[in-house]
Amino acid sequence: MKMIQNTIIALIFVILVSSSEFVLNKYKDSLLHELEITEQSQLSSRALALQSVIDRNFNMMVSLEAYVDASYLQSNDDKEVMEYMASLYHGAQGSTFNLIIAPKGVMKFIYPIQGNESIYNWDLLQDPRANVQQQILRALQTKKMTMNGPFQLLQGINGLVARKPIYQDGAFWGFVSVGVNLDQLLAEAGIKNVDTGDLQISIRNPGEPAFFGDDSIFQENPMMATIEHTDTKWELAALPQASAVQSIKHQITLIRTAFMLVLLIALIFILYIVRQRDKLYRSVNERTQELQFANEDLTAANEELLAGQQELHDSTKRLLESEQMLSYMAYHDVLTGIHNRAHFQMILKEQIVHNEINRTSLAMLFFDLDNFKMVNDSHGHHMGDLMLQEVANRIGQSNLSYHTFARFGGDEFAILLEDCPSEKEIQLFCEQLIEILKPPCLLSNRSFFISASIGIVQYPYGGVTWEALLKNADIAMYIAKKESGSSYSFFNQQMAMNSLSKLEMGNHLRQSLDRNELEIVYQPQVDCLLGKIIGVEALLRWNHTTKGYISPADFIPLSEEIGTIASIGEWVLRGACKQMKAWHSMTIEPLAISVNLSVKQLNDERFVDKVIQILEETGLEAKYLEMEITENFAMQDEQLDALSKLRGLGIAISVDDFGTHYSSLSYLKRFPVTKIKLDQSFVRGVQTDDKDRAMIKAIISVANSFQLQIIAEGVETEEQADFLVTNGCSQIQGYYFFRPMSAEQALPVLQECLQPKLAFLESNPSGHIE
Q1: What are the coiled-coil residue ranges (predicted)?
Q2: Dihedrals φ, ψ of 586, to 5°?
Q3: Burial class (CB in 10 A: 0-12, 13-18, 19+), 55
Q4: Residue 640 CB neighbours (<10 A)
């Protein structure tokens, strides 16, 4: 009997120990798995940062290549070449060690020369280093950029070198190369000399020892990431810090020790009870009281065991709930509670397969909220979040019939429709959706109106893959927003072609300055009563390498949209001021130069400082510079401060296209305007339209009342010029006098006699020439 009891006790003890070890191992595995996921994400982030830094440094190769291809080396002396390389080097502000241009393989142009003296005039084709010769041979064979390193450079640093051969007229010309300091590169990418958190990172070329970090990491089943270069790649390996793993092990050890201590105490109590019971068998009457006390002790120990078991059960339940919560968050939007982009893409893929099998219809609606950014900027992101929640609630609680509704991020949403074969049904759905959003919503005691621009794409006409459907729906939404907002637009192939053409033109426009495709032409401005040229307007032209001259009406708005207008505008301002300063030394009377100004430039906090710098560089006095602002874009209170500072420098401010938009006399009162430019749309109607003649007289009267100068543009006939001068507008710009022309063509024109074209003044009693 006693043996059976001992066997049962031992069996229970073994079962409890085994169960506890099983639960602890599961818990330990889950902690290690979470650590691995976290560290893998950190490694991917480090790899992406390193890839970005490498690409940014080696992208300067493109500028060097373009500089050589543009034949600047033939037209510029060595000093100008070095100045260009210096501007490129300092503009990068990265870990670049040097920039090199090596005609016929000889490193003739090196910047900076300091620290690179050892390689000046070094002949790469005769370089004795085997790895350099291999890179040279590989570059000449592929005619592409190659990367070598890291290795010990002649300058004594550990670095990378990217080279690209240059061919002109099919013959080898030489090399351009960029050298990068490896230590600075890794530091810039946040890998070296920066706390990397819980990661031990090593980097190597495939099959070679690690050049950064401990090579043994690659032998210990690490997390891996790869960085692709032009002709090679790097492998990144990482292991968690030993302290993180040790912390998990320490936590498990503490739990195990506590549990074993409980089991040990329980075993001691059980052995004690068994011993007491044996004694009771020998003296039942004498030991009855003691047996009752022992029984109570046994009950207390049993309760402790049950409490420990319940605690383990609760821990397991919490782990399961955490897993369920993570699964929910992976496919739902935290802010609105509806499905997110990942879930929508998964469903869209499934529905495409379903449609292919069953030949059913499918439509996708992609929309965002009109003027949502204004709400965020004006009232804060909290108010924007409330609006997004209101949109999700309205659509979710509506009677609209849809398959899936999801938020993509920001103010972008998507709806998936099925079994909608006709456009009429889809149109009806979109109109109902717009009506649902139309009523004002009350957020924090403020009323807001919500509208949406909807892009519609149908499968398979708008794409046969989920990526194509999403892209084309976004294109259609952009068209709807561009047209009016609070509307919808069906995707068609012409939209895709227009979008691709616009993307291609935008990419070419970004390179237009480097390609020397932009030109400045000049159109003189005449004062008929004075009988002479009083100023010149600088106009921008784009001579595309394949398409020829492109209208400013096409590329100026595109430049505004893609964000290049600021740099292009600064280029025009500098060139125009430089040219006018040169003309001042050649003409009897100094003239003023007029330059168009973009609202993007006005919104730049450093714009006024840039203007001051350009005036100092070119030597042009501020009083000879006039800046033109467009009425509908720039006449905003936000630009008042910048315009006032410009006027304070002595720069004249003119309003272009006056009268064509929402003109307000309050603008002329509050803004530091010195001149009004009468739009050519009124001038064209002088001979045929009574309303245009009346409008011109009214605008001239306004200018006189506000003591502002006025000039008319687009004057093409003598009759137009005569009418303008007769009614008080003597300053004229247009084809009647001069067309826009190059600087070389303009110089003799500035000294030309205007008497033949001013003959109409002889019959005008109010006109006279001084």
Answers
A1: 284-311
A2: -115, -15
A3: exposed
A4: 15
pLDDT class for 752, splitting at 50, 70, 90?
Answer: confident
| CA distance linking residue 488 with residue 477, whole number of Å | 7
Select from 164, 168, 137, 132 the least CA-distant residue to 148. 132
Is the omega angle on the peptide bond into residue 460 within 30 degrees of 0, that is, cis? yes
pLDDT band at 687 (very low <50, low <70, confident <90, very high): confident
C-alpha to C-alpha distance for 382 and 622, rounded to whole angstroms: 46
**Tokens representing residue 226 in the block:** 């790869």
Rounded Cα gap, residues 636 and 255, in angstroms:
67
CB 675 within 8 A of CB 626: yes
Q: Are strands 96-103 and 171-181 parallel, antiparallel or unpaired?
A: antiparallel
* Per-residue pLDDT at 577: 96
Helix pair angle (78-92, 60-69), 10° resolution: 160
Reduced to 3 states (helix: H, G, I; strand: E, B; else coil), residue 761 is helix
Residue 316's Cβ-side half-sphere holds a number of Cα atoms within 13 Å equal to 13
Distance of alpha carbon 358 from alpha carbon 591, whole angstroms: 75
Dist CA 281 CA 272 (whole Å): 15
DSSP 650: T
Q: Are 351 and 418 in contact (CB under 8 A)?
A: yes
- Give the per-residue pLDDT at 423: 85
Evaluate if residue 634 carries a pLDDT over 50: no
> Angle at Cα 559 formed by Cα 554 and Cα 562, nearest 5°?
125
Contact status, residue 447 vs residue 383, Cβ threshold 8 Å: no
| Residue 478 confidence class, pLDDT cut points 50, 70, 90 | confident
Contact between 202 and 87 (Cβ < 8 Å): no
Q: What SS3 state is found at 41?
A: helix
User: Using 50, 70 and 90 to split pLDDT, how confident is the model at 45?
Assistant: confident
Strand ordering across the sheet containing 233-240: 210-212, 199-204, 233-240, 223-228
* 250 alpha-carbon distance from chain centroid: 45
For 404-485, where are the E strands, in sequence order?
404-409, 412-418, 441-443, 446-448, 452-459
Pairing of strands 518-527, 362-369: unpaired
How far is residue 750's CA from residue 584's CA, in Å, rounded to a whole number? 11
Window from 170-174, 235-239, 347-351, 371-375 with minimum mean pLDDT: 371-375
Are 709 and 668 contacting, i.e. CB atoms less than 8 angstroms apart? no
DSSP-H helix ranges across 604-717: 607-618, 631-634, 640-648, 665-670, 680-683, 690-705
Tally of residues, the chain: 770
Instruction: Quote the percentage of the chain above a pLDDT of 90.
Output: 22
Distance between CA atoms of residues 190 and 55, nearest Å = 15
Distances (CA, A) of 639 to 67, 107, 633, 657: 37, 49, 10, 18
- The token pair at 512 is 């237009």
Q: Which residues pair with 560 in a beta bridge?
A: none
What is the sign of the dihedral through the CA atoms of 613, 617, 619 and 620? negative
Token output for 441: 């919503």
CA atoms within a 13 Å half-sphere pointing along the CA-CB vector of 400 = 28
Please state the pTM of the whole predicted model. Answer: 0.46
Q: How far is Cα 653 from Cα 651, in angstroms, rounded to an integer?
A: 7
Q: How many other CB atoms are found less than 10 A from the CB of residue 235?
A: 19
Element (H, E) at 553: helix 552-562
Task: Report the C-alpha dihedral over residues 260, 261, 262, 266, rounded to 10 degrees.
Answer: 100
Summary mean pLDDT of the chain? 83
Name the strand (E) or helix (H) holding 181.
strand 171-181
Distance of alpha carbon 269 from alpha carbon 266, whole angstroms: 5
Q: Tokens 């430019």 — which residue?
A: 677
